Amino acid sequence: MDASEARVLEIGGDNLIKRAFPDRTTLLWTGRRPLARVERLSPSSQRAIHSDCTPASFARGIRDAAAGRYDLIVTYLPLYSPWHPRDNLRSLFGDLSHPWRAYTRVWGVSWLRLIKLPVPLVAIDFNDHFGIRRPGFFLLDKADVVFKRELPVDRWQVLAGSAHPALPTLRIRSNPLWIRRLEKLRPISLPAPPVNPAALWGGEFPDKTADIFFSGNTTLNSWVRRTGIVALKQLADRGIKVDIPDQILPPEQFYRRMSRAWLAWSPSGFGWDCYRTSEAAQCLTVPVVNHPTVERYRPMLQGQHLIQYDIEGDGLMRAVEAALADKARLKQMAVAAREHVMTYLTAPALARHIIETGLSFGKSSG
Fold first, then answer.
1. Spatial distance between the Cα atoms of 204 and 197, rounded to a whole number of angstroms
2. How far is CA 71 from CA 26, 59, 111, 292, in A?
3. Could you tell me if 283 and 206 are in contact, meaning their C-beta atoms sit under 8 angstroms apart?
4. CB 104 within 8 A of CB 138
5. What is the pLDDT of residue 365?
6. Fewest CB atoms within 10 A around its CB: which of 88, 316, 328, 349?
7. CB-based contact 292:150 (threshold 8 Å)
C-alpha cells in the first residue's frame, strides 16, 4: 500500500502525519496546550482537523482500527507521565473552559498500554532530549518500530538516567529484553520547515553579499554555540563578511538574509539536529555544522551538501575559510543540499517514510 493511501490514526501531542496526509489521517490530540493555540487555528478549523483524545474518542478510534478503518496507529513518546503536574495541571489550567477534555487528553498515549493493538503501531520521538524516559518505556514493547530524532551513536545512552542512574552497564547491555527494545529504534530527522524561495529572491540563485550568516541564541543555549560565536567574531576581524543580526528577525527576513550568505552556521542547540540546517539548504546557503553526535536519517553529507567542523581549537574558523576559498563548489553544494532536503526531509517525505516502515510490519500482535 502506498503511504498516501494508508488510513492512519494519530495519537499524540504532534501532528506530522495529519499535516502531511490530512484527508486520510484522524488526529487525537494529547498535547497539554490546545491544538488551536499551537497551530493558531480558528475554532471551526480546529474541529475540522482533530479531536481531543478523551476516553470516548480514544475508544472509538481503537474500535474503528479493529473494524479495519485504519491501517496504522502513530503515536509520540512522552517525556512525562500523564499524572505528572507538568502535564495534567498545565493542561487543565491552560484550558479551563473545557476542564474534562483538558485533563483527560494528556492521558491518551498511556492508554495504549491497556489494549491489544489491531494494527501496527509506530512511535516517534522528536524531542531535544537524547534519552528515553520511563514513561515511554512501554512503547518500546508495544510499538513495532520507534523513530527517534536525537538517537545517540551508542544507543545504550538513551537509557542513561532512566533505566540506569548513570551509563547502562553490562547487566543491562546483555539483557535480551533491552536488546530487543533498542533494536526497534530508527533515526529520524526534524521535518524541514517550508521555505518559499520565489518570495526571497529573483532568478535561479540568490545574490551573495555575505560570507556566513547566523541568527540565534548563544548565551542560553548549547556550549557549542557559546564558544562558536567567539570564532565567528574572530573571522570578522580577519576580513570574513559575517552577518549576525542584533535582534530576532521575522521568518521572511530571516530567510532572505540567510539566502544572501554563502554559508550559514548551524551549530547544535538543545539537540544536535536543527531546523536551521534544512532551512539554510532551502535558501541555497550551505550549512556549517559541528560533527554529529547522533545517528541520522538521510543525512546531508560532508563536502556534498554541507560543511562539518571540529569543535576543538580553531576548527570552525579553518572550515569556514577553506570553504569560502571555492565559491563555485559552494554553489554546487547549495543546489545539491536543497534538492536533498526537498526529496527526503520535508514533512510529507518523512511522514511517507514513517508510514511505509510501519506498514511493512503487517498486523501487530499487540
1. 9
2. 12, 16, 19, 35
3. yes
4. no
5. 44
6. 328
7. no
pLDDT in tens, 255-269: 999 999 999 999 999
- Rounded to whole angstroms, how far apart are CA atoms 308 and 237? 22
- DSSP per-residue letters across 119-133: S-EEEEE--S-SS--
**Tell me: the pLDDT tens digits for 4-13?**
899 999 999 9
Helix (H, G, I), strand (E, B) or coil at 297: coil
CATH of domain 197-344: 3.40.50.2000
DSSP state of 213: E
SS3 241: coil
Instruction: Identify the helix (H) or strand (E) that includes residue 10.
Output: strand 8-12
CA distances from 77 to 122, 250, 281, 363 (A): 10, 31, 29, 21
**3-state secondary structure at position 272:** coil
Nearby residues of 314 by Cβ (< 8 Å), 6 or more positions away? 231
Please tell me whether residue 215 adopts helix, strand or coil conformation.
coil
pTM of the prediction?
0.92
What's the count of helices (H) and strands (E) in the chain, helices before strands?
15, 14
Pairing of strands 242-243, 210-213: parallel
How many angstroms separate the Cα of 139 from the Cα of each of 78, 116, 135, 185, 189? 9, 13, 9, 11, 20
All three cell numbers of 265, joined, read 552556521
Mean pLDDT of the chain: 92
What's the confidence (pLDDT) of residue 37? 61
Outline where 145-222 has alpha helix (H). 170-173, 176-183
